[in-house]
Amino acid sequence: MSNINTQIPDFTTEAFHNGAFKKISKKDVLGKWSVFVFYPADFTFVCPTELGDVADHYEELQKMGVEVYSVSTDTHFVHKAWHEASDTIKKIKFPMLGDASGKITRGFGVMIEEDGQALRGTFVVNPEGVIKTAEIHDLGIGRSAEELVRKVQAAQYVANNDGEVCPAKWKPGNSTLKPGLDLVGKI
């Protein structure tokens, strides 16, 4: 069952962000574009490569008005320890949400119940808290932050340009489509 065009779940949790612990809730997410990046666990192997990749694109996403939230079923204490231990994770400037209960992970539909961990799930959420893209990978398959940026650009374009859609590989400045009878069978 798809969660596209559904509201993100209600949540309040502790996060590690900019060297401090802070509470973050659904209320904090609303009003701006957001990306939720779920990953299985801290102190693992593929996870730091993905989070480091997102960290490398974080400034670009911020310029687009997007906040990033990484989420695992670890606690905010473990996120702090990982941040202090790993040069890759030290690059992270976005909030790292602790989800030890799994409530957020289950709410987004990416919990592996038998392991108590998340699948690799990436969700682009609009300012109203509605999921606009969902990408879910098995544990051994890493994601691309470059493609994430492109998806956010496309989601923002579609939200701001009623009646237009973005074709495959669309990037800002490329042509879009305006679905209608005149395009049927001509693409």
Which features would summarize this protein structure in a list?
alpha+beta, single chain, 6 helices, two-stranded antiparallel ribbon, about 30% helix, 9 strands, Glutaredoxin, about 190 residues
CA-CA gap between termini = 29 Å
**Spatial strand sequence of the major β-sheet:** 2-1-5-4-3-8-9
Structural class assignment: alpha+beta
CATH architecture label name = 3-Layer(aba) Sandwich
Overall 3D shape: globular
Largest sheet: 7 strands, mixed
- Rg measurement, Å: 17 Å
How many H/I helical runs? 6
Give start-end ranges of low-pLDDT stretches. Answer: none
- Average the pLDDT over all residues and give the rounded result: 96
InterPro entries: AhpC, AhpC/TSA, Peroxiredoxin, Peroxiredoxin_AhpC-typ, Peroxiredoxin_C, Thioredoxin-like_sf, Thioredoxin_domain
Keywords: Antioxidant, Cytoplasm, Disulfide bond, Oxidoreductase, Peroxidase, Redox-active center
EC number: 1.11.1.26
Active site: 47
Overview of the molecule:
With 187 residues, this protein is of the alpha+beta class. The protein has a single domain, classed as Glutaredoxin (3-Layer(aba) Sandwich), CATH 3.40.30.10. Helices cover 30% and strands 24% of the residues. The chain has six helices and nine strands; from the N terminus they run ββαβαβααβαββββα. The strands form two sheets. A seven-stranded mixed sheet has the order 2-1-5-4-3-8-9. The chain has a two-stranded antiparallel ribbon with strand order 6-7. Strand 8 and strand 9 form a beta hairpin. It is globular, with a radius of gyration of 17 Å. The mean pLDDT is 96. Belongs to the peroxiredoxin family. AhpC/Prx1 subfamily.
